[in-house]
């Protein structure tokens, strides 16, 4: 549609509104006079006609000034009705002034008008002008509903959990979209005083415990959780109840997301498995991350966790942020995202290169002289590293060695590496290489007092590349089955945000040589995780989507550990009561150097034996 056509339509609508208002004003006064003195109506008709033009013109001019002809009436609400009311009141006062002026000039004399006529006409004008504009909105919704009914055999029926401000916002959003995203048919709320009431015609029928019965009674297709202020524990309880209904689940942003600007408007999003962690998400002390302000920060590896570290670092106003990755697409995506968020105010640089190439790393350090390094680059897929153990050694061990060595040469203030719970009593090559990297940072920490070297050890990260969650989701999208290695396999889990914040905060807490560990609560059964993801997707496990067991993969354990036996005795809480620090385990530097030299020439046949010389508790799980 071209601009001329749009302008014509807008002008046509304004003319229709003006004509309607002219009729309303004159009919209102005519009716008011007739209601007051019907017998004398014929005598007063010449005076009514005489004042019609100036009074009507006054109202039309007043309505124009109040913006009643340029509002989008298909979205009319309380604000528009208030303007109609105010314009009607002012218009009534103005009409009295017009009558007084007309009488003074002898043009027309309305001396027989009683005050009640002005009051009655004012109420009629307010009611009819408001109704005429609301009728436009109602007719548009009726037309949209008709179109929607023609497009769909069934409009999604929605239950809103929480009859508060956020529930009302979501209700209005569904209405404003012509119910294309669903029609709210019932509220539930734990506030007893709200039960039995209605919000915009939608009843509040029970509390959250009544969700299963109300889902059946109202034939609900989707449940939207609208209580951002609820505690994490209560949120999990409600979502668990809703999951048992088989409905698809959505939620609104949390208060923290809205305050931080991560969520713009009440965007409805899917309930994620992280919302069901059997512990509250760890609240890390962001204030302790001010050491990043004005610093040059370098991050190696821009995968799921490395990119989140970049996001966390960016919040603390670094002077420069350097992204180093061997895979240009990841680094490019993060750079574009941060440039968009910070509108180019953050100095971001991308350098492509492999941590295995010590010459390239030295070039990058020479160019930027970073103050702090977060080393996230690593091969992390357990089964793949079992098949390519020498590549794990090259990238994880010697890549870390290269970057740590150069960091020491350039007197970097902080050097933090990412480790894993698989490094504790490792049962696979990946875990063993990560344990070696922990030893390497302790080795370098003893060689200098200019750089604080530290490692951060954590469990599985929900939603990270290659983790079980994306795999399960893809399997569900294709109709299943969902594959689980063993019904008893358990893992520690944390969110990507937690992992990144822990790494960033470790830089603040580090004095050199530590391995930081997060208190991750209890381990979670992978089978239970699979069942919950299936339910969150709106299916019934074993009925709609089957779960099959494939057996433990090479190098995979039934459960993981967070600390070595030797570390547990000396493990201490840090300033953050959810972060532990383990003391360095004594080892011979010369023996480590000798073992690393031997590992450089290892081949697929003897690489595991070479690793065991450095990590004696590396015990492979038999196939």
Q: Order of strands side by side in the largest beta sheet? A: 10-9-8-11-12-13-18-22-21
| Overall spatial form | elongated
Please state roughly what percent of the residues sit in beta strands, choosing from under 5%, 5-15%, 15-25%, 25-35%, 35-45% or over 45%: 5-15%
Largest sheet: 9 strands, mixed
User: What is the terminal separation in angstroms?
Assistant: 67 Å
Compute the CA-based radius of gyration: 35 Å
Low-confidence stretches: 148-153
What is the CATH superfamily of the largest domain? NAD(P)-binding Rossmann-like Domain
What is the CATH class designation of the largest domain? Alpha Beta
CATH topology of the largest domain: Rossmann fold
Structure description:
By secondary structure, the chain is of the alpha/beta class. The chain folds into three domains: 3-149, no CATH class; 157-271, Rossmann fold; 286-462 and 493-522 and 561-614, 3-Layer(aba) Sandwich (Rossmann fold), CATH 3.40.50. The protein is built from 20 helices and 22 strands. The strands form six sheets. The protein has a nine-stranded mixed sheet with strand order 10-9-8-11-12-13-18-22-21, sandwiched between helices. It is elongated, with a radius of gyration of 35 Å. Strand 1 (157-161), helix 5 (165-176) and strand 2 (183-188) form a beta-alpha-beta unit.
């Amino acid at each position: 549609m071209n601009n001329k056509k749009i302008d014509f339509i807008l002008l046509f609508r304004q003319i229709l509104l003006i004509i309607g208002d002219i009729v309303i004003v004159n009919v209102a006064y005519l009716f008011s006079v007739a209601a007051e003195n019907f017998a004398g109506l014929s005598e007063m008709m010449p005076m009514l006609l005489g004042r019609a033009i100036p009074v009507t013109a006054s109202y039309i001019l007043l309505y124009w000034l109040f913006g009643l002809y340029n509002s989008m009436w298909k979205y009319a609400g309380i604000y528009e009705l208030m303007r109609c009311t105010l314009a009607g009141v002012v218009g009534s006062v103005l009409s009295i002034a017009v009558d007084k002026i007309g009488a003074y000039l002898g043009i027309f004399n309305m001396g027989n008008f009683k005050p009640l006529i002005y009051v009655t006409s004012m109420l009629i004008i307010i009611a009819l002008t408001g109704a005429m504009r609301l009728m436009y909105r109602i007719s548009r919704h009726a037309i949209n509903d008709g179109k929607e009914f023609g497009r769909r055999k069934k409009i999604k029926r929605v239950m809103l959990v929480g009859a508060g401000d956020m529930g009302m916002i979501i209700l209005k959003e569904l209405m404003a979209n012509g119910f294309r995203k669903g029609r709210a048919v019932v509220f539930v709320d734990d506030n007893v005083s709200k039960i039995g009431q209605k919000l915009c015609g939608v009843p509040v029928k029970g509390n959250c415990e009544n969700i299963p019965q109300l889902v059946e009674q109202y034939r609900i297709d989707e449940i939207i959780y609208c209580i951002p202020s609820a505690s994490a524990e209560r949120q999990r309880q409600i979502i668990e109840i809703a999951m048992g209904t088989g409905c698809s689940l959505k939620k609104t942003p949390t208060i923290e997301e809205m305050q931080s600007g991560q969520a713009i408007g009440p965007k409805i999003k899917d309930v994620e498995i992280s919302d069901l962690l059997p512990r509250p998400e760890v609240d890390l002390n962001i204030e302790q991350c001010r050491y990043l302000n004005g610093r040059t920060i370098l991050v190696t590896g821009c995968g799921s966790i490395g990119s989140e570290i970049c996001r966390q670092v960016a919040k603390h106003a670094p002077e420069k942020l350097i992204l180093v990755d061997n895979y240009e697409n990841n680094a490019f995506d993060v750079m574009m995202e941060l440039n968009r968020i910070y509108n180019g105010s953050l100095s971001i640089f991308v350098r492509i290169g492999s941590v295995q190439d010590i010459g390239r790393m030295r070039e990058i350090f020479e160019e930027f002289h970073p103050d702090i390094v977060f080393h996230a680059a690593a091969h992390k897929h357990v089964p793949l590293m079992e098949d390519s153990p020498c590549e794990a050694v090259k990238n994880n061990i010697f890549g870390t060695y290269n970057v740590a060595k150069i960091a020491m040469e350039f007197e970097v203030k902080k050097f933090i590496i990412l480790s894993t719970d698989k490094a504790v009593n490792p049962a696979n090559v990946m875990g063993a290489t990560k344990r070696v990297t922990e030893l390497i940072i302790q080795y370098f920490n003893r060689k200098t007092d200019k750089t604080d070297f530290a490692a951060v050890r954590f469990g599985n990260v929900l939603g990270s590349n290659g983790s079980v969650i994306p795999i399960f989701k893809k399997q569900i999208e294709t109709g299943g089955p969902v594959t689980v290695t063993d019904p008893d396999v358990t893992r520690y889990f944390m969110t990507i945000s937690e992992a990144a914040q822990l790494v960033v905060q470790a830089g603040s807490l580090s004095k050199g040589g530590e391995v930081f560990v997060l208190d991750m609560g209890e381990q979670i059964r992978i089978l239970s995780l699979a069942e919950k993801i299936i339910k969150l997707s709106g299916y019934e496990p074993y009925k709609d989507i089957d779960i099959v067991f494939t057996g433990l993969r090479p190098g995979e354990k039934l459960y993981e550990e967070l600390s070595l036996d030797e570390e547990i005795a000396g493990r201490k809480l840090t300033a953050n009561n959810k972060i532990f620090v383990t003391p360095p385990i004594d080892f011979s530097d010369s023996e480590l150097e000798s073992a690393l030299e031997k590992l450089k020439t290892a081949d697929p046949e003897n690489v595991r034996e070479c690793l065991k010389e450095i990590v004696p508790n590396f015990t492979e799980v038999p196939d």
